[in-house]
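Batch manifest, entry 17 of 40.
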Amino acid sequence: TAVIIGLGEASGASYQAVAHCAAGVWQEVAVNLDELTVDDPAKDSNGKLDLDQIVSVTVFDIGGFLATFLPDLKGPRSMALDDVSFSSKPVLATTGPAQITRVVPIHLVDNFESPVIRWIPISVDFSDGPKFSLFDAAVAVDKDVPEGGGKQSLKFAYPRKGQKIHAVMRNLEK
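Output type: structure tokens
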């Protein structure tokens, strides 16, 4: 499922990041505070997360909300949290503004160098009218470096069937 990690300020603004967590496996989630995006800019007068203004921490299972529209997502669920902490030491930035040269700015979508999975598997089955599904295929960070070089990557495993397409998507959190 996908979870939203949120920090709420006294002003009512909420700063959020999204991560995908596979069922039945432990998933480390670590994000830099500057990777969190505000839900409603009008609620925060200075437009930035103020650590001294944080009044709440939220971990929200998006699957519960989506079950309203996608009945296949209904059923028992559980979530385990451990070692929730804030640190001044940054984690490896895997997304956001970057540069490939001194003059060419880019927006890095993901380099998969962190255990945080920000991609959600989706599919559409056309065999009996279009049926949209989320989380019906496995995604994981593949830490095995491919022969001939490269680095770790996102691994997306799904069955290929007639009349069904699979994809992964992510929110760019801009």
